């Protein structure tokens, strides 16, 4: 009876914590506005300037002969969450890219370099976007087709009304699933945690022994990625003089995505061969061999930290100002490490039975480099292509690093992608641990 009661209490606590986390994150802008005492504004058709619109009938429908726009002057406040309520008859237009312009000073000079592209479907009735700056004027270009009839209701800035949508319910379900997986794996996780001192010691030794006997030692772990960044910096900034991507220098756009990928690729490549490399430890009867893939991941993470610092140095060189959004790198790093643990246990176990598996992994990583948005911008790709590329969980991490440094996009703004990533991570963790623990008794014989 006590066992059943304890389990019921644990389920209730997990559900309450999941709902509280989801509600807090989905309404983060509203909470920030209340804490920071930001003013809440609502602009309707009488207080906005509706450029190139005219009233068509008594129902409040507007018809544009070219390019309908909503212009708001003299805002003069720090804006976070902006919601535009506008209705279009379903099927009237095909375009779903809304261009948002803003100015930061008294001169209302709207220009393309101040554009915030918001890829949303306005036929749904409303769309949201975030500026996170103290702005003076805003212009919203809706559609570029003639004779488009729509009903305009309002523009809300810094809204304080709380909401929880269907995507938030999906993420709540995923969080509950994560709690369940952690609970079911609590003994395995506890066993690994008990070996934390040994893991740290072996991770240090792994970094040292990887380049033992060379003149520069551990420095070689940083040289190749550093030279790649330097080559791209020289080629695209000095040689080709590449045009800015997303209104920043090419190297600023390139580095966040690249350092996240090399962390993933280096960890997977090293972890796949870890059991063969440490075969002398695998054959010891009482050695916890499940920590060997973790050692490789942590050793790669140490190198990754160096490149994160280097990334900030590059950004400082270009006059980048830090913000609280940069803390989101901790989330994406944690998410990537969780993914790598599952992949490492899976690939290390398979490589024992398939000697050519490490070579296959190398080819997959080479192809994967071009399947994530490192060299290419997802905004320039076809929507159908991007849709399929997003099935790669690394897409979420690479784009997340870039959004954190450049656009200030919060990970909760991509609920479907976030839910999918963690579902894949949980699946890989489950399959990886089950396979590793199921065949570990054969490792000593095969090695």
Provide a brief overview of the structure.
With 447 residues, the chain is an alpha+beta fold. It folds into three domains: 2-35; 41-157, Jelly Rolls, CATH 2.60.120.260; 185-446, no CATH class. It is built from 16 helices and nine strands.
User: In percent, how much strand structure appears in the residues?
Assistant: 15-25%
Number of strands: 9
What would you report as the Rg, rounded to the nearest angstrom? Answer: 26 Å
Shape: globular
Major sheet size, sense and barrel closure? 9 strands, antiparallel
Number of helices: 16
Report how far apart the termini are.
48 Å
Q: Tell me roughly what share of residues is in helical segments.
A: 40-55%
Mean pLDDT: 78
Q: SSE order, as H and E?
A: HHEEEEEEEEEHHHHHHHHHHHHHH
List low-pLDDT spans. Answer: none
Structural class: alpha+beta
The domain tally reads: 3
Structural topology:
Blueprint: H1 2-26, H2 28-35, E1 41-43, E2 49-55, E3 61-72, E4 77-87, E5 97-103, E6 115-119, E7 126-135, E8 137-141, E9 148-157, H3 166-184, H4 186-194, H5 196-210, H6 220-239, H7 250-272, H8 274-277, H9 279-282, H10 292-317, H11 328-353, H12 357-368, H13 383-389, H14 393-407, H15 415-439, H16 443-446
Antiparallel strand pairs: 1-9, 2-3, 3-8, 3-9, 4-7, 4-9, 5-6, 5-8
Helix pairs in contact: 1-3, 3-15, 5-10, 6-7, 7-10, 7-11, 7-12, 7-14, 10-11, 11-14, 11-15
